[in-house]
Structure formats: C-alpha cells, structure tokens
Amino acid sequence: MSEKKPPFYITTTIPYVNAAPHVGHALEFVQADVLARFKRLAGYEVFFNFGTDEHGQKIWEKAQAEGKDTQDYVDFYADKFKELRVTLDLSYDAFIRTTDTKHKAAAQEMWRRCSAAGDIYKKQYQIKYCIGCEMEKTDSELVNGECPLHPGKSLETREEENYFFRLSQYGEKLMKLYSLPDFLTPDSRLNELRSLESGAGMQDFSISRLATKMPWGIAVPDDTEHVMYVWFDALVNYISTLDWPQNEAQFSRFWNGTRDCVQMAGKDQVRQQAAMWQAMLMSAKLPTTGRIFIHGFINSAGQKMSKSIGNVIEPISIVNEYGADALRYYLLRHIHPFEDSDMTIEKFKEAYNADLANGLGNLAARVMTLSEKWLSGVVAPSPARGEGWGDVGVVFPEAYTNALEHFEFNRAIETVWHRIETLDRRIAEEEPFKVVKVDEEKGRKMISNLVSELSTIALLLEPMLPATSYAINSAIKANKKPETLFPRKE
C-alpha cells in the first residue's frame, strides 16, 4: 500500500489594493497555481492561499484624496483581485482579506504573544520613511537619497513614539534558519539575507502608528492610541487564513514548518518575508515557514512598469484577446523564475503564434483529425480534471517534477514542449497519414500511439494550461478534432 502524501500549503503574497492588478501580480499568482494543481494531481491535500492587503497609509491617503470611505475603497479593489480567479483560471482554496474579522483577531493574538515573549516595546524615534514601500529606509538602502523602488518620490522624515519589535534578538536564530537546505530559493537571495546580519537588516522595526495621524489599521491590543503597522498586520494573513488560532487542527496540519509549507514573494520582500515574519513566528513560538521562493520583476521594453510611462501591461486585456492559458504559458516559459525579465505585447504575440497557434494547437488538430478519420471509440487514456487518481496520485516524469520542486517553471514547461516538438517531428518523418492508406493496420497503430502521447502531453499541461488540457482530453474522449485551441493572430 502506498504511503499517503503529506498536506501541502502554498501562499502568494497579498497585493496592496491601491490599484488594479498588473502582469507582475499575475506572474506570482500563476506560479503558485501551477504548484497547487501539480500537488493536487500528485495526491497531496492542498491549501492554496490568496488575498489582499488592505490597511496602511497609502490606502488611507488615496481613499481620502478620492473622497471615498476607506472600506468602500478597499472593497472595490479587493473585488478586482477576486476576479483573477476567472481571469487567470486560479484554483485557490481561500481568499483572505486583512479587513476580515478573523484576520484582525489573529493579528491581535500575534501581537499579544510577541508582547508576552518580551519582544515588543515603545520608544521615541526618527526615521526616513518611504510611503510607496510602507517601510522605513536606512541610508544604505537609498540611492541618491531616494528609495530605489520608488525613484522621484520624496521620503518623509518622521519622529514619533511607536511600538517596536525586537528583531535584533533573533539574528542568531535566523542565521540557523537560513542554513537549512531549500529554505530560500534562489541562492542569490539567501546570500542577500545572510548579509543582513552585519548591516541594518536586523535592527528592531516599528510595528505601530499613531491612530491620530493614520487611523486605518488594526487596533493595538490595550492601546487605542496606536494601530498596527501594516507589515506586522499583513504578514499574519498566512496563518489567519487557516483560522489560526481557533482551528488548531487545520493550522497544525498545513503550517507545519516542513518543506511542504511554501511562501512565494517578489525580490523586494526578502527582508519582510524571511527575516521580519520568521522572527515574529519564533517570538510567538509557532513553526517557521518551510520554504520561501523569491521571484524577479517583469519589466516592459527595458523599463520598470509605470503608469506615468504608460507601459503597464494589464492581464485582463491579454486574456480577453488571447485567453488565460496563453498568458499563463508566456509567464511560465518566457519569464525567468528567479531574475528580472522583459515583456512586451510584441514579444507575447510572437510567442503565442509560434508556440501555441502553430505549435501545440496545430499538433492537437493534426493528431485528432487522423484519429477521428481512422480510429473509433476511446483510443487513449484521457483523465479529465477532478477525476479520482486514488491515494497515490499521478506519477509525473522525474525531470518535470524536479523542475517544479525547485520552482523552475520555465524548465518544467520546456520538458512538455520538447514532447510536443518531438511528436510533431514524428508525424513529419513517419507520415502516418500516408502509411494508413497502404497498410491500414500499421497506420492505425501509429495513429493510436500519437493520440496516446497527446494524452500524456495534456496531463503534463494540466497544472500549467488547465483549460487547454481539458479541451484536448475532451477531444480525445469524443475522438474528434477539437475546436481551434489558439487562433492565429495577425
């Protein structure tokens, strides 16, 4: 009897709801969705978390500037991100909002536990503050006196009494955590983390704001004059989504400190996710994250995406014209999982026509046209989404599995495209469409083998291009040529 697979937890970061989703958001969400679908097919019990970060100064100021009630403002943008479930064909299990009652209660419980551990204190301080990051900045983090992530935006100098978290007490414990295999991917980000120990990265950080200056936040327990700093509040979403602390059984099952407890984040959040959050967990005597994957940014035409420049790529406009799987394909194969990548609509369209319309779409049509004409009945196993695989789950090829386990999405999908290109060459070289006319039995067998390989390709595509996988499987079951999967775009 096969051993039962362990629970698998995966979470994206939760985006700030001060603007509509862009393609940079879509990258992380699609990557997480691929892993969630892959693990489900492999027989794991999966919890995939998604949601929105809805407190903080940026949001409060934008709502004020637009003359809107702040809750109405965040409700509007939260709905925009919820819509990505359909737009990007996501399969998340929970959508957590930091304005949810259960999240507020969890954030306050985290505060109490960190306070009970002696890791929260008050002090008067002065800082340079970037509103764009909602983070204080040290001189070593600045470039020409500006935040490198928000050039052209003035830093604020703030002086007030705030609560602080004793991050400085956890340097040694964090360094031990960073020495664990696979804790943080890629290694270049791990080196960045280790460098924090000798710099300002392990300094205590502010975790509250005066409610008289910025009221939009979760109240600090037993002190109505302060609200929680947005980063202390937001990070707790990773466990509040599991109904912590009320549902201890669910929390313990998924947030278990093993390599099957995974967080995903962009390269601008290394310190927050791998230092601040891990120290908070240690303080509260909770398991730390098992693995953290850090991805790069998407630029457009060599520049950072910016509304002022006018080069922001919105996922919904691409999906409306090309379909969700076309965008998923491009993000997985043509955006590097670890480094910054460049994307333009021109590059996207070129890849769409070459790899999807002329590649996969054309192949599926050719194979199923032959099958419909020369074969009858169900000619190959074609498991549809959601059908039972038993306790064991699908056994995927080693190279494919290894790539996904190491967050190398481009390498994983390239193993599938190698099969697609190989099958295309087989048809051109062996010419089953000619063979079947002179030796029907031999030709039918050749065609049946083609359909069988197409079915395998569909299965491997299921975590990546779910709608396309389903369409191919449906065509195989019906033994009919599918509707055009990817119409060519001129």
The CATH superfamily label of the largest domain reads HUPs
Looking across the biggest beta sheet, what order are the strands in?
A: 3-2-1-12-13-7
Main structural class: alpha/beta
If you consult CATH, what is the topology of the largest domain?
Rossmann fold
Q: Helix coverage percent of residues?
A: 40-55%
In terms of DSSP E residues, the strand content is 15-25%
Mean pLDDT: 91
CATH class of the largest domain: Alpha Beta
Tell me the number of strands.
16
CATH-defined architecture of the largest domain: 3-Layer(aba) Sandwich
Q: What is the overall number of helices?
A: 19
Largest beta sheet, briefly? 6 strands, parallel
In total, how many domains does the architecture comprise?
2
Which tags fit this structure?
490 residues; alpha/beta; Rossmann fold; Isoleucyl-tRNA Synthetase, Domain 1; 2 domains; six-stranded parallel β-sheet; four-stranded antiparallel β-sheet; 19 helices; elongated
Folded structure, characterized:
The chain folds into two domains: 7-295, HUPs (Rossmann fold, 3-Layer(aba) Sandwich), CATH 3.40.50.620; 344-478, Isoleucyl-tRNA Synthetase, Domain 1 (Orthogonal Bundle). α17 packs antiparallel against α18 (440-461). A hairpin with a 4-residue loop joins β4 (120-130) and β5. The radius of gyration is 25 Å and the shape is elongated. The strands form four sheets. A six-stranded parallel beta sheet has the order 3-2-1-12-13-7, with helices on both faces. The protein has 19 helices and 16 strands. Residues 382-391 have low confidence and may be disordered. It has 490 residues and is an alpha/beta fold. 47% of the residues lie in helices and 15% in strands.
